[in-house]
Every structure is written in structure tokens, then in C-alpha cells.
Amino acid sequence: MIRHITASRLIGAASPVIHGIIADYRDGHRRIVSPKVFLWLAVDKGGTGAGTEIRFAMRAFGKVRTTRGVVTEPEPGRVLVETYPDTGDVTTFVIDPQPGANETRVTIKTDLHVRDGLAGRLEGFLAERFLLPHYDEELERLAHIAEGLRQYDPVPSGPAD
Question: By the 8 A CB rule, do 141 and 31 touch?
């Protein structure tokens, strides 16, 4: 069963600026993820947009999990997709410019594989309760950077940093 977890925010910046931050896994992306959750984010291949391969460690529910991801851009400049081969889970970043304004709606959506039945519903519920505040923080950090209001230090680029 797939659990869909989605968060969205309107940001006062042009879509190319926002895309540039999200797609830059060597710097920009490492600045928007929450250091409370992400222990590090490493680039194994590429670094900007499609073709980038990443690894990261997240702290969730008292455990640290390391995950690999592959980045694609099915709609260059608008949609970035992180696919995690070990689980089949997918996180999508959608960057929608708003007409007539220097604003962009950014949506983060994760399709998470959970077990069927009651156990899966509980897993999905807990995952959503964990991920939504993280996505809200990520969108806030992205807005601050894109709007020029604040800078953040990047999470480390690997486990030894």
C-alpha cells in the first residue's frame, strides 16, 4: 500500500531561483533540510538536478537510517524526483510559478510504501506525523533563502564531516 504525504507553500520568489536551490544537492539542498532530522547528505554522483545520486542519514523514531537516492527531472525546471531504490519510496518536489506575480507554489510529496492492513495504516499515520513538520520546516527554510531573508548552514556533506 502507498501512503501519500504532501506539504505545500507559496514562496515570494521566482521559480528558477527556487529550482536552483532545491536542485543543488552540494549546497542549496543541504541548507533547506532540517538538521534536527538530517545528520548528513552526501553527493555520490553529479550534484545538480537529474543524474544526481545521493546518500543521507536521517534520525527518526530514535533510530538512524541511511538511504540512497537517485534524482530525475521528468519536467526540467519544474519537477524534481528523488527515488530511493532500496525501498521504492519516492519524494517529488513540484515548483509551480504563479501567474502575474513573483511567487511560486512549492509542493513536497512523498509516496511511501507501507504494509497492508492495520499495521500499514499505523505506519502511514506515524510517518505522516513525522514528515509533515519536517516538510513545513524545509519549505520555511527554502522560503527564507529564496526570499533573501535568512541563510542557513548546510548539514554536513558526509558522515565524517
Answer: yes
Residue 110's nearest CA partner among 86, 133, 135, 85 is 135
- Asked if 6 and 86 touch (Cβ cutoff 8 Å), the reply is no
Tens of pLDDT, residue by residue over 35-44, are 999 999 999 9
Residues 6+ apart with CB under 8 A from 6: 107, 108, 109, 110
Sheet of 53-60: strand order equals 2-11, 104-113, 89-97, 79-84, 63-75, 53-60, 38-45
Domains defined for the chain, CATH in brackets: 2-146 (3.30.530.20)
Say whether 56 sits in a helix, a strand or coil. strand
Here the cell at position 122 is 499505523
pTM above 0.70, yes or no: yes
Q: And the C-alpha cell for 150?
A: 535568512
C-alpha cell at 131: 514528515
Taking each helix axis from N to C end, the angle separating 15-23 and 117-146, rounded to the nearest 10 degrees, works out to 120
